[in-house]
Fold these 2 entries.
Entry 1:
Amino acid sequence: MFRDRAVQFADRMKWEVSVDENGWERDEYDALDPLYVIWVNPDGGHGGSMRFLPTTERTMVREHFATLLNGADIRSPFIWECTRFCLGQKSTPRVAAALMLAGGELMRAFSLTQLLGVFDPRMVRIYAMIGASPEVLGSMGVGRDKISVGLWPFRPHDRLRVLRRAGLSSEISEHWFDRSFGHAVQEIRKAA
């Protein structure tokens, strides 16, 4: 995952990120015990991933992209930040949708209302293709250098669109969640 992040963010996108001697891209937020969603390819390699942190704690948006929000501070136990959306070098077209679906399953399980994230113009097309476009809260820059911050709701009809795009059934998605957390989405919601 961290090697693919280096390839995506440092090599391809030319972002100013830190890459260590192992070729891994890691930042200060990886040290905050985030929750990662990781797609594993059939060969066991990294297919794609995302990182999640609650907005009640430190976030990349608050500490590095606050100007995009014109002074607003998004802090809620019902909104988590989603960053480092990364597609592996051997990912298939459905991986992006599967990652977005996983984010939606987290929202369902933990009663989240929205996800918060920063994205660039190339992701706008990907999000639209998946059927999970954000509400843009602010942007700066132009062309390929434009950066935006947005909120993603995850409504039931969004989930159905993303399931179709990922080529997955609701039962499979829920099974994966259960295997990852040891509890079904519905059990976690009841306990909360």
Entry 2:
Amino acid sequence: MPPELAAAGAGRATSAFAVEADALRRHIEVLAGEIGERNVFRAPALQAAADYIAGQWREQGYQVVCQTYRTRGVLCANLEVTRHGTSRPRELILVGAHYDSVIGSPGANDNGSGVAAMLEISRLFAAAQPARSVRFVAFVNEEPPFFFWGKMGSRVYARAARARGDNIRLMISLETIGYYRDEPGSQRYPPLFRWCYPDRANFIAFVSNFRSRRAMLSAVAAFRSHCALPVEHVSTFAWIPGVAWSDHYSFWRNGYRALMVTDTAFYRYPHYHTAQDTPGKIDYGRLALATQGLYHAFSAMAEGH
């Protein structure tokens, strides 16, 4: 990590609302190391991951709610917990991350990093008193062959939320957020984007559709005010490769505002969807900085800023 970022992280290490790199490492080592590849084709591992997440949330003092459904003969579950708001409890900020991994990969960055960040953010919110409710959801079955289709966990969840009339003000998908590089040329983009964004893979990205742009800009501003890690953002078309490739797309399809937070996945990560996506590839220092910044951004959104 660059010295200036390391110093910024160290300066916040004594805060009561601090994210520790070692805590993130422990989560990812369990999910991608001890458990490993986890999907419906390795059902015991998928269940072990769900049990781990639920156990962490219970230790944080939450009541875990399971939304179960069956696919490929396997009982699957989306897991949720909620930090209820004090003055506007029916208004929801929803933070989600998928806990399955693609076939053949242990999924440290995709998406152990997103789950680890979500677990640490929920830990901090357990001691907070937000005005709006903040809900955390661990989604199952994001990866192929379920991606985009009816048995995708977030699609099942978003349809049910719309049917219930859930007042989700913004959904944020934490998707592959743990890999950073400082070398020139380490970051790639879709055509034309490279003329507008840096060529070093040292930033976190906020990605939205046009309808969610205003909420995204507010989140980016809150993140920047609390975090030294560089951040880039874009509102663009869903058909651009990668833009809709996570659980936020399920919420777009059901009429909710949503965005993705990502390290840009295959545009920078050489181990994307491979057997080499292991815990040793993660930059835990910068993942901790990103997680800390996201907590403050979500806190601001939960206050209605």
